[in-house]
Amino acid sequence: MNPVSEIHSSTAGLSNADILKLRHQKAQHSNILDLHNEINTPYNSPHLNLGSRNIDIDVPRSSDTFPSLETKVAGMQKVISFPANTSQLIDNHSEELFPGLGDCNTKTISTPVWRANQPNLNGHGHSQLKSSNDNSIFPNQNGVSNKSMSNSAPKTLPPSLAGRIQAPMIILQSNDVLPRNHLKKPIPEILKDINRKLRTNLSMMIGEGGVLQFRESSNQKEAVKQQAIKELGTLIGSKKSITLPIPRSIRAYIIGKQGSTIKALQESTGARIQLQKMDENSVPVQDDDEMIDVTIEGNSVAIQLADIEVNKIVRERSVNIQTKLRNIPVEFYPFISGKENSTVNAIERAYNVQIRIPSHSIWASHPPPQEPHPGQIPKFSLPTGEDLITLVGDRGNIQAARTEIEQIAQNLSQELTIHQFIVNNSQHQFVIGKQGVSPDYFFAETGCGIILPNDSNEDSITLVGRRDDIETAIEYAIDLASSMNQSIIDISKLYRNASGSSRMHARNITTYLHDRNEIEKICSRYKIHIATPLDSDGASPWEVFYRSENSKIATKAHSEIGSIILAHPPSRMVTIPIDPFFYDYLKREVKPGVRRDFGVHMVIPEKHSKITDVLLVYEGKSEIDSEYQIPREKPDNELIKLFEMGLTDAEQFILGILKKQAQLSETSIDVPRIFHEKLRRYIQKEQKERAAGEIPARVFAAGTRLTLRGPEPIVTSLSIKVRAFVDQAIEDEKERDFTLKFNFPQKFANQLIGKAGSHIKDLKEKFDVEININDGIVELKGPKAKSEAAKSHINSLGRQWADEVTYVLKIDPCFHREIIGTQGNQINRLQTRYKVQIHFPRSAKPIKDDILNGDNVSDADRRVLHTQEPDEVIIKGPKKGADETREEILSLFQYFRDNSHTATVSVQVGQVPSLIGQRGSGIEEIRQISTAKIEVPNVKDIQDTSTRVEVQIKGTKSSVALAKKLIEEKKTLFDNTVIKTLEISKEHHRALIGPQGSILRDIILKAGGSDDRRELRRTVQFPKSDSEENIIKIEGHLEVVDKIIAAMQTIVQDRESRVIDSIEVPIENHRSLIGHNGQIKRDLEQTFNVTLEIPRQGSGLTTIKINGLPPNVEKAKAHILDLISPRKSKSS
Questions:
Q1: Is residue 230 included in any domain, yes or no?
Q2: pTM score, two decimals?
Q3: Does 649 have pLDDT greater than 90?
Q4: Where is the K Homology domain (predicted)?
Q5: Closest CA to 576 of 615, 631, 538
Q6: Which of 93, 100, 126, 1064 could connect to 162 by a Cys-Cys bridge, CB 3.0–4.6 Å?
């Protein structure tokens, strides 16, 4: 190749003046060819800003370099370097030096684009873009067809303009322009009209073959120039469409947030841009090698402009691409990663890419590979789902890294083998997992990958590695599995004599303890592991694993487990066979009530569990909502009867609920997949409107078959509705191309769209139509009837918003939170009821302040809210609703202002429980009496009971005063309360308490104490009867406490000073001392303050004992003798 031709091949697209200049430089610097292979010098091309686009015009300068064809293919740049010390350049714009050279018809050099390295089906380096009339158009980076450029030399060009001519803004082939008879005016007149309207200077030149070049040379803004070109295309451009393939990962960037980017593109270019729809239910694929089509429709000018903008986005977003390897077996992943990721790190450094290899533990979704028969090659598993090796980086570098990884995989397929061996499945966790090592560590130690089975009943472990490493890996795995000691707990043996199957009861206990998380707690507390295998016949013996150093702790764990098992005999549990359909309903609606009302805990199986029966376990009613403690004491016969009664009642209650349900039925309906999402929303809406207590039908989808299962009436009703819905959807689909346009006030557009598009999205779902809003025009696309209904609704919204008024209320900020309500409930109620927007200043809003901002806020509203004063509340909406809202808010404001009196009472932390009372009864009583709002602080975390806290009171002036008075009375009483102890021998305790507490009650009342039962129990507290303590605790006001102590001491002194005397009384006189129902005896004891012990009738004894103080005993004795002396004389 001669030097001239070489320079010509490297400067395609330059003007004749630029080429001549380059030749001049070539003559001055003969060493330019020797520098052709230098690399790593950046190539910079200046940008000439034309219209709204940046068109790259490659003008070589002394510092410029050019990429060769070979380096383009390799994805790197090998460049030509010009010497930096070049002499002054010749002015290629000089009319003297270069008079009228004109334009050249060679192709322009294009910078590499995202699909430069992807050959199409025809073997070309670029894709073909097909127009609607089957003309091939391939846009270069400037959006101009290569085909048109090949014939674009102008017929005539004034010599004086040749050096200054601008690149055209747009180039049209003859078939890109409407026929003359379809134009309203000749093109020159159209240009004049546009220039006059927009004050631009748009001109046209005709090249060979009728190619039209349009330039703009005014000083107008770029947006105006772009508008001029856009209007030109509308008037003269023929209608076409092209299809442009792009990476699927770029789709989101072209659409933009809420469609903002694609809307802007369509508005600025005038073209209609459509992207291939993605299945809503499909998993997003982040792989840039997967291509989708972009369809651009419109006039020829709009298509060129849109094509440029789309390619610009693709180039910007395709600097780094992502691809996934689907042909690498998952067994190879650890070997490709290498020990401590050494191999993959080396590949990343060598090719400057990022590589993500999924974790070794990815076998939960599919079975491990099988060991091959002798002499056969092992079969490895290709990845499924998202378990793929991912590469991110430059396209060329990724291709090189991919080749390297595939070569490694090819070698591994020849080197690796598969081996399986048996280890008890309960010991697998000590090989890989929390109790063992990680798969990465195992690979680093042995050079083999390890795969555990996903079936808990499977014992085999699979190794993948080189034959020389397999034996070492087996030994290492067995050492890990054997590192724990093992013992057995057989629950069924503890209940082998119980009625029923002991193994089934063992299964019930195991299931229950797992559900209550008790087994996990024991394992954590004692540093052991318990394996609890289950099968269809019951539970196998538990296997307890522990390390040698924890053997003593494991023995304690054995003892505790045994206590728990003995505390749960078969009488404490019962199973109920229930159809799995009812599981969700029982868990959601029935389980809490059964626990609360019957004290029975329900264990409901998971959906795919092997156990299908619902297990009932009696736990007992609990008044305090606290964590249930698993019992560890063997129940007695009385408790067992309580178990059986509670379980029977709970079982009858559950079965009674299920008997009320209709018989279960099932039906299937064929539904095209395109309607599944709409149908899902429809069914959800229908199920929400069911009657209270009605169990909803369950819906399953498999392919195009939709299955409904549930109570027969519900399934029948729902299936009829579903079939009608599908039939209507099929009919509607036939009218999807129907379009309806109408005017809508632009000022309400934001309100119609809603916050983040929420309102218009709701309208689309409600009416099942597509809705687009542009410059005051609403376009509806969908079935005619639904479009008409949507139009009617949108117009009614417009009329409603036109009737809107705005009120600004001045309200003291201290009342804002109360008016808003908890989580905005009061304001939300007003907004929903009156269809208005209510805006409080931001400082008044709770954390989730979005709930108070209306979804539809216009720009004008935002400006108002931006300047909103701290004491201003803004109401906006229909006049009637706004008036009602204003009245309610002002009424609330007045109410809160009238009830805004506050007071505080300082109390000790120790008083708070007594102030609140049992279950809040104490404080609730004060609230009801005073009608004030009282807030008692939380004192759980305060250790010092003498610390003082503030009780807040709020309400009307009178209610606050009354509540404060009541609390201060309690406070004064508490502050004057003392606690004293009195040591009295236990032999006197019963005498101090008296029959049914009568003596103690008299002591407290006479001392000035309260007659309230709870206060009586709190005032005097005796030690428990089984305790050896003698200390009595007295609590209350100091004066009351001292009187109680004095009274008790007097009683004790009296008892200790008492004497016992006896008197002989004939048996026939005993009845006269007892009286009817013991009345005479009680009168004597009360009169003389003594105790009489009269022998039982028939005992034959005559001695009566008198117990009391000596004077009282003498008086009682004398009185008794007087009573019986007349009887003696009579008998004698």
A1: yes
A2: 0.44
A3: yes
A4: 238-315, 319-410, 415-482, 736-799, 803-894, 899-972, 976-1053, 1057-1125
A5: 615
A6: 100
